[in-house]
Design brief:
216 residues; alpha/beta; TIM Barrel; 8-stranded parallel β-sheet; 8 helices; binds D-xylitol-5-phosphate; binds zinc ion
Length: 216
């Protein structure tokens, strides 16, 4: 089944509770955390995850676009995240492994995220313990960018690795997902689709979610 994870980066931060209710037919709430260092933009952090946890039972899929995520994974887990994605480019492999170990201790689901430049094979040291792999289909940092078609091949390669080493692992894609690109990423093997502008910019949000899933 295809899951939809609307990104609240495109929501109204002054009305987050209202905007999370608008996506109640989706599967995950995608929360984009940016530190102004790993990516050239800043967004939201731990207190916002805490507040979201109080106002929704939906699955909180927290995408950490931050340097050295090992410093913060425990706090995000305790704030109420259900899943944390850490970027493989954000620290040395030993500290990526340490961050995943802390996530295990905190009983939060574990994901690694790949910038477009990163080889699919970079997931190999971790694949067997992951709940999800996140493939970026834009350069992380901003909503509303154009989908990078080159990344379809990365999605296919990651799907092949997942099928070989850990078939239960989910494959999420993030960036430029819209009605025109959703069928392409699904065909390439993605099963969780993040969408910011295509959901929050739509006149009928439940209809937009159904369309992205492939059953309008
Ligand atoms: C980009 C973020 C995305 C972003 C997607 O760095 O990780 O989650 O919100 O936005 P759209 O769907 O508008 O490309
Ligand atoms: Zn994201």
């Amino acid at each position: 089944m295809i899951k939809i994870a609307p990104s609240i980066l495109s929501a109204d931060f002054a009305n987050l509770e209202r905007d999370v209710k608008k996506i109640s037919t989706a599967d995950y709430v995608h929360v984009d955390v940016m530190d102004g260092a790993f990516v050239p933009n800043m967004s939201i952090g731990i207190p916002v995850v805490q507040s979201l946890r109080k106002c929704t039972d939906m699955f909180l899929d927290v995408h950490l676009m931050i340097e050295k995520p090992v410093r913060y994974v425990e706090q995000f887990a305790k704030a109420g995240a259900d899943l944390l994605s850490i970027h493989l480019e954000a620290d040395h492999p030993t500290r990526i492994a340490e961050a995943l170990r802390i996530m295990d201790e905190c009983k939060v689901k574990k994901a690694v995220a790949l910038r477009p430049i990163t080889s699919p094979n970079a997931i190999l040291p971790y694949i067997e313990q992951l709940d999800l792999v996140l493939v970026m289909t834009v350069e992380p940092g901003f909503g509303g960018q154009a989908f990078m078609h080159d990344q379809l091949d990365t999605i296919r390669q990651v799907r092949a690795l997942i099928n070989k080493y850990n078939p239960a692992c989910e494959l999420e894609v993030d960036g430029g997902i819209a009605p025109a690109t959703a069928p392409l990423v699904i065909e390439a093997g993605a099963n969780v689709l993040v969408a910011g502008s295509a959901v929050y910019g739509a006149p009928d949000i439940p209809a937009a979610i159904r369309t992205l899933r492939g059953n309008p």
